[in-house]
Here is the input.
Amino acid sequence: MTLSGILIVVMAVLFAAGVYAILERSLTRVLIGFLLLGNAANLLLLIVMGAPGQASFYGAKGLTSDPLPQALTLTAIVITFAVSAFLLALIYRSWQLGQQDIVIDDTEDIAVRARGEAVEVVLDDEVEMEDADDKDSTDFVGVETAPITVLHHRDLAAISDDAPTDDPDRPPPGGDA
Here is the structure.
């Protein structure tokens, strides 16, 4: 296995472990998962960069390396640091308030979830009834509020067309004949 293949496998393992850790209920594990994802993204950018070369200064001869993945990696490092600091502040505040860093559902969360499922069932029933009632119905109240006006063949005579055409017999718009 080549060096690039090993780096790809390591990057894939870091992404998988990071996603797995982010899906946990412990904020500390979420932080660890986010750090793993940040390192995997940095590794991905370094793999995409390709073979290293000389610095891309003006007038450099030979193979030069692309500076864009390096700039993106530096940006990803800064973003990872900032979000990690924010997550650390959340973990610290959660520990101060509840002496734990596990996110638990309280009674309001459970009530909102149950209410949401009930509303979803009612909305599904309403949509099925509306679909059964009228297939050609529209959500717009009146024709004047519709964003698109559909013209029929009877409306074509009322349209004044002043667009230029390729017809030599037709005078150009504006009366210049």
Observations:
- Residues 105-135 form one domain.
- The mean pLDDT is 77.
